[in-house]
Write a structure and sequence with these properties.
about 350 residues, ten-stranded mixed beta sheet, elongated, alpha/beta, about 30% helix, 2 domains, 16 strands, Alpha-Beta Plaits, 11 helices, TIM Barrel
Length: about 350
């Protein structure tokens, strides 16, 4: 069982370093996390419990506790406060709501730029576009690869938006790192542990989608692979799971949002597009996820979905996406969150510590 070392409020930097050095000397892996008031150091390794008494004696240490969850660094035990990421000036997590939008696949420069401008105008803060597409059929369109990445980078720079794209192979991590701002790990690769380890060695944010037959614990353990390599810039995504229901492509597990938030400090998004498989169902599912407290949603938008090379039936038209963004802002206000527009907070509502609501 692994442990966490909780430092006293205002502990000196030398005290923190002394603990980190001692954890290393004991053959454990230290994972410091500096909060607003305290620093917490995770001590991960087989001999962690045996080291507990030694670490308790060090200057600046308040207490040493065991981590009971199988996922260590992703747990609320390791970090009580919500993780809030800064991605090119955009705040993600905590009270911030961000909408990621764009076409499923990068088909051409013209389509990506047109859709990108439309979603930015509507209020999306992050641009999505797939360059590598893992498909069920070996005969389906699998993306433009590096050419698509070049188009995505150009669009992101011109529009002033961070970009996210899927990486499907550990061998592609280096090239995706060069062109995109956020790694997306798709549902089919959630347990591609070699891929998770590779993106964990980088310093770019990683967006992990829940597998279609994965439990919440499975998802958090996948996040643990990334965190264990030193990359703490991790986001999670509920994208729908396989059930007996045939009316939708998958079943969006809205309950996963509050459950994950109870267990983990990591931001959790929802993917109404892949869950629904039908564009008419995307808005209500997106609103349900935001109402449940999600850190945002990832929505597929296409200007001509009937001609899309990938997932056209679930792509929302730009005009309808703009209407959805207005509804998301209204719902976010009701649950005390703030929607980010191009990296700027809008319609902030705060919840006072004493209860009730205030604007």
């Amino acid at each position: 069982m692994d442990i966490i070392v909780v430092m006293k409020a205002g502990a000196a930097a030398d005290d923190v370093k002394r603990v980190v050095d001692r954890v290393t000397e004991l053959g454990l892996t230290p994972h410091p996390s500096k909060g607003e008031f305290r620093t917490i150091i995770g001590a991960i390794g087989e001999q962690a419990l045996q080291a507990q008494q030694q670490l308790e004696q060090l200057p600046g240490v308040d207490e040493v506790m065991a981590i009971t969850q199988p996922y260590k660094l992703a747990s609320r035990e390791f970090q009580e406060a919500d993780t809030i990421l800064d991605i090119k000036g955009i705040r993600v997590g905590g009270p911030h709501v961000n909408i990621i939008a764009g076409p499923c696949a990068i088909e051409s420069r013209e389509i990506l730029f047109d859709v990108g401008q439309a979603v930015k105008d509507a209020g999306a803060s992050i641009l999505r576009g797939g360059a590598y597409k893992p498909r069920t059929s070996p005969y389906s369109f699998k993306g433009k690869g590096k050419e698509g990445l070049e188009i995505l980078k150009e669009a992101g720079e011109e529009l002033g938006m961070p970009t996210i794209t899927e990486v499907v192979d550990p061998r592609d991590v280096e090239v995706v790192y060069e062109y995109a701002d956020i790694f997306q790990i798709g549902a089919r690769n959630m347990q591609n542990f070699n891929l998770l380890l590779e993106v964990g060695k980088t310093d770019k944010p990683v967006f992990i989608k829940r597998g279609l037959a994965a439990s919440i614990t499975d998802l958090l353990m996948s996040a643990e692979y990334v965190l264990s390599q030193g990359n703490h810039r991790v986001m999670l995504c509920e994208r729908g799971i396989r059930t007996f229901c045939e009316e939708t492509r998958f079943t969006l597990d809205v309950s996963a949002v509050p459950v994950i938030q109870e267990r983990s400090h990591l931001p959790v998004f929802i993917d109404p597009s892949h869950a629904a498989g039908k564009r008419d169902l995307v808005p209500p599912l997106a609103l349900a996820g935001i109402a449940a407290g999600a850190a945002g949603a990832i929505v597929e938008v296409h200007s001509c979905p009937e001609r899309a090379l990938c997932d056209g039936p679930q792509a929302v038209l730009p005009d309808n996406f703009a209407k959805l963004m207005e509804q998301i802002r209204q719902v976010a206000e009701l649950v005390g969150h703030r929607v980010t527009l191009w990296g700027r907070p809008d319609a902030t509502v705060r919840r006072p510590a004493g209860g009730g609501w205030a604007t």
